[in-house]
Write a structure and sequence with these properties.
mainly alpha; Arc Repressor Mutant, subunit A; 2 domains; three-stranded parallel sheet; 14 helices; 3 strands; about 65% helix; elongated
């Protein structure tokens, strides 16, 4: 059995091969290739693609590919279902799902940084998931702290943290990185696609597309980019003497006509009308 996915794995693309080799097909061959080559090589090599958008073995709603493997192969082992939310929380960068997710993410990121060969990375990471499986099988209720006094203090601290967390909404770490990435592209007049962003952040495109609006003004990725371009255009109309065609170019629109149409949709005025009303306000204020 051959399985193929994107190169440079960290969480799901390591956890799923571990699951395949340990519970589905011990002789399975796992192939890592650049994103654009997954589909064509899957057909050429007669391999099953996984953890990419638009294939059977992928993310569904708030579930990651590891969850789908458990469902598809009807794997009932309780330890695997203890592991699943840990893997999901690490893969989706939502460490509120399971307290162990943050640790798994840190270990996976460190290993991926340290080991550049994907097959070597998979081989070394198998022991990580074997260890996680052993913990989930035999030790999920075990406590590291044995001293009763320390245990009471930890319980008080956890209660304090849970009350504090309940008052705030957890925002994934990738959101601030993404804001900077979008701003940099807007400032340098470069086109920015969801695929490019996903690769830069090492996030699944399906997950990013689904989660984006939760943290970016309830807008889709495309809507948010257009809004950012309009905001930059507004600044240029207010503070520069650039022509409308130049502003259209500087803000990433295909031409002045496209710029005018989108600007009117967002502001109710064409760029020239906006600039004229701005000049009139300045003139009135001087008078």
């Amino acid at each position: 059995m051959k399985w193929i996915t994107r190169e440079r794995p960290k969480i799901d693309r390591i956890a799923c091969p571990w699951l395949i080799k340990r519970f589905i097909d011990p002789d399975a061959q796992i192939i890592f290739v650049p994103d654009a080559q997954v589909r064509p090589l899957a057909e050429t090599l007669q391999a099953i693609p996984f953890d990419i958008p638009g294939v059977e073995f992928t993310h569904y709603e708030n579930q990651c590919t590891f969850d789908y493997f458990l469902k598809k192969y009807d794997l009932k082992d309780p330890a695997l279902h203890i592991m699943a939310p840990i893997i999901r929380g690490a893969d989706l960068d939502d460490h509120s799902v399971a307290s162990q997710s943050a640790g798994l993410w840190a270990i996976a990121a460190g290993m991926a940084f340290l080991i550049r060969d994907d097959q070597e990375l998979l081989e070394k990471a198998m022991i990580i998931y074997d260890s996680l499986y052993s913990w989930a099988t035999y030790l999920p209720q075990a406590k590291h702290v044995q001293n009763p006094t320390e245990h009471v203090l930890l319980q008080i601290y956890r209660t304090y943290l849970s009350q504090k967390t309940a008052k705030t909404t957890k925002v994934p770490g990738w959101t601030s990185e993404l804001r900077n990435l979008i701003q940099n592209h807007i400032d340098t007049n470069l086109n920015l696609s969801l695929k490019t962003v996903s690769e830069n952040l090492d996030l699944n495109p399906t997950y990013l597309s689904r989660e984006f609006s939760r943290y970016f003004d309830d807008l889709s990725f495309g809507e948010y980019i257009r809004k950012a371009r309009i905001e930059k255009a507004t600044q240029l109309l207010e503070s520069s003497t650039n022509s409308l065609a130049e502003i259209a170019y500087l803000t990433g629109f295909s031409d002045q006509s496209h710029f005018t149409r989108i600007f009117r949709q967002h502001t109710g005025k064409s760029p020239s009308e906006f600039r004229k009303s701005l000049a009139k306000r300045k003139s009135d204020s001087k008078g």
